[in-house]
Design brief:
Blueprint (H helix, E strand, L loop, with lengths): L2 H13 L1 E5 L13 H4 L4 H4 L13 H10 L4 E7 L25 H12 L2 E6 L8 H4 L1 H19 L3 E4 L9 H5 L1 H11 L4 E4 L11 E5 L20 E7 L16 H13 L2 E7 L9 H17 L17 E5 L3 E6 L7 E5 L6 E4 L8 E4 L2 E5 L10 E6 L1
Parallel strand pairs: 1-2, 1-8, 2-3, 3-4, 4-5, 6-7, 7-8
Antiparallel strand pairs: 9-10, 10-15, 11-14, 12-15, 13-14
Helix pairs in contact: 4-5, 4-11, 7-9, 10-11
The structure holds ligand FHN.
């Protein structure tokens, strides 16, 4: 593997936390990104939505500022979702944002803001396309179209990676059907460092870098479409929504509590995975306050505990009923939110512990270690009920 791509993979793993953005003309209807399909809206009624799309409050610098406040290190944004509408100035279609009243190339503005702030930017692209006539009638022509769009995205905007989603629509003989290996080689001829994710829910192909889990922790399959166990040769990333919707849904008020989101981040890191946490911007270009507030609270927690998340590795213990665990060269970090009874946490610890403290305050913590048996004496209530991190120096 190209050494620059290997380095890009390592850096991506260290980022640990990214913002997923699902944004398109569907946001005008406020009922999620599948509204055209679920409500059987004919193309003749759906496509004219573009004539109303004018998100005058969109400000790429503000979005990047929120990402930084949240402690996120990258953004993965929909360049084109299943509806086929392009949120960038594509040369291959007129069905695009620069042909709306907004006129501006949103993806270019975001790419410029990310470059300035050193935030990595990846593009979600849906090979599944509900509007393109060739999708159903001329597979060779459609393959040329969608491959051409992914190539133009990489050539024009130089993203950190590409995140494909929709090949599950034709799952048989995946690589041959979608000509994935051919596309990946062409993409890497443009940019040898490019990372590739493909949310196809099958075993990762050799040239794919990121194995994705959707609304599930890695290795779990609670929602039923993440059956493949984590691949040791792949980067692992879980993508999750804050409520239950990817695209803006005005009626979805089931927003996860900040504590739950902080724990999900720790559980992903504990499984050696990144968390890609989603927002669905409104048709005016702003991100709903309930999501901004949660992200800012996560950023506050990360400012005190980020050492236990960024640049750490997971898979420290086989199970962590009390929370999660991560590690770096000199520490094991225990993420605690389910305090054991009697407030004594007993662990099998083959390494000699040199010290134990609360990461956020550096206050020491009493412990005993007899050979490989470590006992931590926890207080009756944990200092941070959302997730209290103990740093064990090894
Ligand atoms: O159909 C898409 C859905 O709209 C959304 O983009 C998620 C995000 O991972 N992926 C697909 C559902 O599996």
């Amino acid at each position: 593997m190209d050494k620059r791509r290997q380095q890009a993979r390592e850096n991506f793993r260290k980022m640990r936390f990214g913002m997923f953005v699902h944004w398109g003309i569907y946001s005008l209807l406020g009922r999620g990104e599948w509204v055209m399909y679920h409500e059987k809206i004919p193309l003749s009624e759906y496509k004219p939505l573009m004539e109303r799309f004018n998100p005058q409050l969109f400000n790429a610098e503000e979005w990047v500022g929120l990402v930084q406040k949240a402690g996120m290190r990258y953004i993965t944004i929909t360049a084109k979702h299943h509806d086929g509408f392009c949120m960038y100035d594509s040369e291959l279609t007129d069905y695009k944002i620069t042909n709306t009243p907004f006129k501006r190339d949103m993806l270019k503005e975001l790419a410029d803001a990310c470059r300035k702030a050193k935030i990595a930017l990846l593009f979600y692209y849906s090979p599944l396309d509900w509007q393109h006539p060739a999708y159903k009638t001329d597979w060779v022509a459609y393959t040329r179209y969608w491959h051409g769009q992914v190539l133009e995205l990489v050539r024009k905007y130089r993203p950190y990676g590409i995140w494909l989603d929709g090949c599950w629509d034709k799952p048989e003989n995946l690589d041959e059907t979608w000509k994935l290996t051919e596309l990946y080689h062409r993409l890497r001829a443009v940019d040898p460092t490019l990372l590739i994710a493909n949310n196809h829910h099958q075993k990762p192909l050799p040239d794919e870098d990121i194995q994705t889990y959707e609304q599930d922790l890695p290795g779990e399959n609670k929602v039923g479409f993440n059956p493949i166990p984590p691949d040791d040769n792949a980067l692992i990333e879980s993508c999750m929504t804050i409520n239950n919707s990817w695209g803006y849904n005005a009626n979805d008020t089931q927003h996860k509590a900040p504590a739950q989101l902080i724990r999900i981040l720790a559980e992903c890191a504990g499984r050696d995975a990144n968390l890609l946490l989603n927002v669905g911007p409104k048709p005016d270009g702003t991100i709903q306050m309930e999501h901004q507030e949660r992200l800012i609270e996560m950023g506050g927690w990360l400012r005190k505990n980020g050492k236990a998340i960024y640049a750490t590795r997971g898979r420290v213990f086989n199970s962590c009923e009390w929370g999660a665990a991560t590690r770096d060269d000199k520490h094991i970090y225990l993420h605690l939110w389910n305090s054991p009874t009697e407030h004594l946490l007993q662990l099998h610890m083959p390494m000699r512990i040199k010290s134990a403290c609360w990461l956020a305050t550096k206050a020491p913590l009493r412990y005993d270690q007899v050979e490989e048996k470590l006992t931590l004496h926890l207080p009756p209530t944990l200092p941070d009920p959302r997730n209290s991190v103990v740093a064990l120096e090894v």
